[in-house]
Description:
The protein is 54% helix and 12% strand. By secondary structure, the chain is an alpha/beta fold. The chain folds into two domains: 3-282, P-loop containing nucleotide triphosphate hydrolases (Rossmann fold); 286-390, no CATH class. A hairpin with a 5-residue loop joins strand 3 and strand 4 (96-98). Helix 6 packs antiparallel against helix 13 (272-279) and helix 16 (332-349) packs across helix 17.
Amino acid sequence: MSASVLQQKSSFIHKSTAHVIAVSSGKGGVGKTNVVTNLGITLASRGKKVCIFDADTNLGNINILLNINPPYTLQQVLSGERKIEEILVDGPAGVQIVSAASGIAEFVELDRVQQERLLSALKQLETHFDYLLIDTAAGISDSVLNFLQAAPYTVLLITPEPTSLTDAFSLIKVLKQRGLKRSIFTVVNMALSASDARAIFRRFKGAVEKYLQLNVGFLGYILSDIELTHSVIEQQAVVMRNPSGVASRCILDLSSRLEQYMEHDEGKTSFSAFWDEQLAPLDKIETAPQLVAMDHAAVVDHYLQQGRAEETEALLLQLTQGWMKRFGTLPASLLEEVSACSAAEATIDQAPAEGETAPLAFTSSEPQQDQVGLQQAIHYAQLLGKTESKLF
């Protein structure tokens, strides 16, 4: 890297906040990183200052896609070894890249000094670029959800595959549970034709609006193109390798629509403000866990004492669903309860013959109802994740 380029990067000037756009998908393999990279290059070729922030902490592929070997990553910024402008890597058409931004996903696990360094870096990126494109990981991990909550704009990639649609629906559902209310842009990738892309979008939009009451907008589509595969193999962006190709023209249309929207949108907000809010409460972290635990116990006890069965069941179901979404399986203690409930149900179903005595454990009807109710609540929570497959 030349001294003049490094000097230029060091002279960050403060201006209005950049357009921060998080690009995500419900599942991997839908071409997300390819779209982010080519979209960023297209915007930069039009004179926009663009930074691509690789936020896929598991599979950072932008470097591989563009055949770039970054000397530093965000880890050196967190450790204090480098400043954010020193780790920026030059990409095609003047795009700047923050490589494999691992560390930001574990924001709450960083110490106070690292968090402040990260926040400062994000603020500098916001004030230096016109567009900050966040390439998130796929799925519904905390890392992905935090980025999508923080970014003022979200672009969600879907493909004609049913699993892509159901996983994208699940991602939006979790975002709604976290309080998301704004619209989401949708891009249909790997479409066979323009009419096919619009039909897929209408199906997806209909399911989201009907079951989640959220709006999704159609940003555009990218047609299936063998040139994309060739570009990946040769480690070149398709808009640079074959700018007149089918996929390149689709990406050009996407960037035009995106620019037009951003030019007329006055609701630009700060990306770093979300992380700033995460940093603010840390002074009270020592007392927070105990207080939260006491509040939950008090709520459950209140419902039980008041005999409000419906509210208690809803609370139990919500907690069980949240646990399964976070950890993927039920707690061991609940699994033991399920096993006990199964044994109880078997005993209940097998009524004692005339003259026999019922087992002592089931002489009272109340424990039976409680155990069966718990089993049903857990069963409903397990079924929750399977409902999306019936939507498309």
